[in-house]
Amino acid sequence: MSEPGLLDGILARGAVRAEVDDGAWLQAMLDVEAALARVQGSPHADSIAGCCQAELLDAGRLGAEAARVGNPVVPLVRAVRESVGRDAAVDVHRGATSQDILDTAAMLVAHRALGPLLDDLGASAGAAAALAERHRETAMAGRTLLQQAVPITFGLKAVGWMTGLKAAAARLAEVRRDRLAVQLGGAAGTLAAFGGDGPRLLSDLAADLGLGEPALPWHTDRTRIAELAAALGEACGAAGKVAGDVVLLAQTEVAEVREGDPSAGGSSAMPHKHNPVAAISTRACANQAPGLVATLLGCMVGEHERAAGAWQAEWRPLTELLRLTGSAAAWLRHCLEHLEVDAERMTENLRRGSEQVLREHADAKDMLDVGDAVAAAATLVDRALERR
Amino acid sequence: MSEPGLLDGILARGAVRAEVDDGAWLQAMLDVEAALARVQGSPHADSIAGCCQAELLDAGRLGAEAARVGNPVVPLVRAVRESVGRDAAVDVHRGATSQDILDTAAMLVAHRALGPLLDDLGASAGAAAALAERHRETAMAGRTLLQQAVPITFGLKAVGWMTGLKAAAARLAEVRRDRLAVQLGGAAGTLAAFGGDGPRLLSDLAADLGLGEPALPWHTDRTRIAELAAALGEACGAAGKVAGDVVLLAQTEVAEVREGDPSAGGSSAMPHKHNPVAAISTRACANQAPGLVATLLGCMVGEHERAAGAWQAEWRPLTELLRLTGSAAAWLRHCLEHLEVDAERMTENLRRGSEQVLREHADAKDMLDVGDAVAAAATLVDRALERR
Amino acid sequence: MSEPGLLDGILARGAVRAEVDDGAWLQAMLDVEAALARVQGSPHADSIAGCCQAELLDAGRLGAEAARVGNPVVPLVRAVRESVGRDAAVDVHRGATSQDILDTAAMLVAHRALGPLLDDLGASAGAAAALAERHRETAMAGRTLLQQAVPITFGLKAVGWMTGLKAAAARLAEVRRDRLAVQLGGAAGTLAAFGGDGPRLLSDLAADLGLGEPALPWHTDRTRIAELAAALGEACGAAGKVAGDVVLLAQTEVAEVREGDPSAGGSSAMPHKHNPVAAISTRACANQAPGLVATLLGCMVGEHERAAGAWQAEWRPLTELLRLTGSAAAWLRHCLEHLEVDAERMTENLRRGSEQVLREHADAKDMLDVGDAVAAAATLVDRALERR
Amino acid sequence: MSEPGLLDGILARGAVRAEVDDGAWLQAMLDVEAALARVQGSPHADSIAGCCQAELLDAGRLGAEAARVGNPVVPLVRAVRESVGRDAAVDVHRGATSQDILDTAAMLVAHRALGPLLDDLGASAGAAAALAERHRETAMAGRTLLQQAVPITFGLKAVGWMTGLKAAAARLAEVRRDRLAVQLGGAAGTLAAFGGDGPRLLSDLAADLGLGEPALPWHTDRTRIAELAAALGEACGAAGKVAGDVVLLAQTEVAEVREGDPSAGGSSAMPHKHNPVAAISTRACANQAPGLVATLLGCMVGEHERAAGAWQAEWRPLTELLRLTGSAAAWLRHCLEHLEVDAERMTENLRRGSEQVLREHADAKDMLDVGDAVAAAATLVDRALERR
To answer: Considering the entire predicted model, what is its pTM?
Structure first.
């Protein structure tokens, strides 16, 4: 696992970082090579697997050689072949092409990263649900267009957060289960290099690696990447929405919530400030997602049997998008699990806002009835928690 | 239905345009108002429905008034109330808020637009499947990084097109079925204005309009819009990929396919040219999608109970994305249904490329074996067509 | 000028809409054809110019025919030739290609649209400057990360708005002056069809149309479009920043500013609300810019002498970006010219926030000194106003 | 300088990588702190400068602490204060806020990275100019919409590449010269913490660091970042255009150019292939730019005196955009400096295409006259080279 970088504390929080760094990518590629030898029934499969360990290779050197051929698989195969010895070498990468390895590795990396990512996203939704239960009847001002409108409850707001997070998590889980599949096609996708054995290998490789089996090699069909990217973007949007609300509620003049971690939130110039660092960092991560999703959607349009640029342009945005979404989820979990809610201040703000309205619009009285709002909102909270 | 604009022939081909124009949006909003009165059991429901006809209203005037309040629902409600008469007026828009109407209308517009859109996308996939069947054994050069690599068949290429288009269509159909839901919450989403009747109304309104019923009002949870947008972007990517291949195959120097419509493709300066206009126009439409998807993902992050800008920023990109995806699908259908394939030229190009390789690399002979490639590819074509 | 659409009141405010609609594009293309005949010294130049009137043509019909050839210039030229009569027909579009006309028309459209756009942007900056002068010493809370930090003045905030708007306007004016140039190259950009006359025509056409003269036909070099798009995106960002601040200051709990137009801001569900519609609409427009800029940057990468999709994908995003930026500027001007500032509330909010800090951090006293802050801020305001 | 990563050979080629890595950012922040002490006339300025060395600090540890406060400056200041000793500690970061340091550091990083980046971009343009001179009269097919159109010369194509690259380089140089300025404002941008000394410090700090002096602290005005990002995106677009043409010309069936580096271009599955790796990698880098530019434009809209998320979301996209643009420029330089042009093949392709046209359209003869085209194109080449 690589050392965390200068900004990783903020932009790469949580366990996803380690699942998408260079070492993780390298190991994923090596896992594919090892599995390929295995499902091809190579008598050297075990010793090949023994050499397919990321720590035995020098990522930097591979990277430098990768520049000569345009992808890191060529030097990786060469390195594995060298270390495995002459007899076994021929069974390394047999019949495969670089894109088979890299695309399948991308799926493995995504599959692995989505584990902790979904944990953190689920925990965030769980924390929102807990807030909703606890504040089922905590009245507060509903705010539309950032103006106080009519009363709601904090429970309703929190259960709305939960719903968005759960929808995003459900979609991500669905993509993980249904759309992360092995890629194996050989030089141009016919599987011809595997003789009649191709379709069986496709199936066995999928089973070996715990990924899906595609009907067809998908090197030219990037809908899987697109759906993964979109689901990550959706998760960032759902997380960013919650974080945005927290930042707004934490404003000095509103002060209805406060991030609870007492060790955090200081300022270099103003030691007295208490900043909602977790919510802010969630947004910092989530804000970067739409542009990356756009890049990955743009990369769907590749030329013929392998894109001359669009394929290679996927690697970093996909990595970054996994990392940022993981970080957003980890930050949001931290934020919501430690969120301090000031129910009294909510009541107070609501009362003040309503009085102000009623001074000018006495006829708005019915709309501002708190009891009705709380009752209606509580029904919705219960309903949403039941159906979750 | 509005008159087509100067560029609509190119950028808004097909039946989707009419489903997303101003009149369609207006009618969708009116349909929601009519349905709302109906499910609320208003004795005036029929006369309200009678007044909820887009052609009775002046879109331009509504638009001008919309500017004063920030959305078109306020003047629309006023206009309907005026036309329906004093007694019924109180039953128009009762308990609802502007966003309820607009969000539900957006879902209706999307639902309706996805009808012809999925038809055209499905027909494109069907045309690709037909090409795959017909050219199951038509050998051609596989091209990676735009260099001839090893032989494939045109059937394999076409079935790969089909797979991508079908995946995108399946996702869009799934979003249409599972994620297009009514929005009803009242002023700030509690349903309080409907008394205890809110949840039932949610359910009845969904049934009346043929949309889904959400667990919770979703005004603050834009995952539905995000998934719709992403699925549209995916469809554009899948269509763009196919169109890109067609454009490349149609190059003068390659000349393996040609768009068949003899009336099309002329040039203002060069009457002798035959341009693949359908494929080019598919790309023109599809290229615009990633940026629009990014905008809509960015709009997920709205403030509290109604976003002050992010909500309003959704309307046009969503409309445009539906229109462009519909247009891309319509163009691609036209392209593939009329595609002329020159199998002889494919053979000829493959032979020339192979000879060139073999002059320098005699040992590449096995890789370039056409018979093996055709057999392997045909197996894959059959498999993909069976599983479709 | 086309009728305004349902959402144009919100998303297409101001005078730019009329400069970028179908009629404006059509007229711009016709202006190029007329000018081309003129600078070529055609004896029929006057009668050609007489036929080059948008109102004589049917945009919808041209659009339908445009679909057959992939651009609207081919049918436009045919229509002009028909109306001008057989003798003059040969002098219409002589030596030019469709892209010459469309690219030059795009520059004309942009040049014309930037007139009112820069007016509104300049007026916005002027209104910000006036606020800065008026509130040179109006103390308010500085807010970092949406927490009260140390005192600033409203004048300083407003002059910061001015600086951003002025920078964006300066860049747009620079692009307008230096980068909007005629495109003329003929079929593939050699100017060969004009004999030795090409370079002179380039120069004369530029002079005739009031656009720049490029060193080279720029059909393959889209840096001009990119710079225009980026400058529009920058203007939207600068406007969006100001509008965002206004929305935040107008929050019920902050209430330091209020949009002054008494006829605006109502709600369909809550007649008592006063929403900052102008600021919200500014954001609604500005939010859509980054995605459109990304699309246009992506379109820079076109194939050889004319892109097969990327060129055609520019037309709508460019139009939309001009319209939205114009709309954002018009809304912001309206917002700032009618902004009501509640200086007392600013003082009150600042006092309350400071007291809260001082209860816990008595040593923050120096940082919270209002007099020092006002003096320092006033110096900066003066400096920025002087250098504007 | 950090070790290159697995994909850096492809995605972070050239000298820019080292100018934007963690060490470079750290040193830039330290340079700002050292300069600040210096211009404030601290008697400890030298010893502070002595401690402001990136290699004395542990980036990973700073990063971990950064997570607690939301930015890396707070722990960096603490570390420098500790190492500089108690007396000098008070002169470290005096009056400044984290954003002052980070924003100014961003400008320094950009300024430094743009050095080698502009070298590579300039060398690319130079290589294109050399190709234009050498092939001033090399006839080839002009291709519009990827169909052969009329003759051009390779010189004209290459000089068009040059023009785009030069325009982008000129814009970047302009941004570097005019828009990279120091940021200094103190806690909320008033400069109050510096007493009356603020404006002088702004000026001296700018002079010390070799950056511009702003009229106003620009923490709230992100037009500088926007212009930098846009100019980088433009450079990527210009580079991507050239690379795209090279990839198309290098197609097996066209074969008019070939990347000359004999050590590069191999394939893992097909050792016989010669792939245009440099052009492909240029595209791989350039393709990622539009999404990053969109992210940075979106970040312009920050709240009040410091954005709660949008500011923090700038750091990585800006770094990545600099790195990718640098990499694209380095790859393109390599590509163009080693490009092998097959003039005979150009002639041959042109002849074949023309014959094909003339079989069906004998009247196109004039348009296809090679001599006229070469003469006209040569005039344009000369003109563009003169005006460069």
So the answer is: 0.98
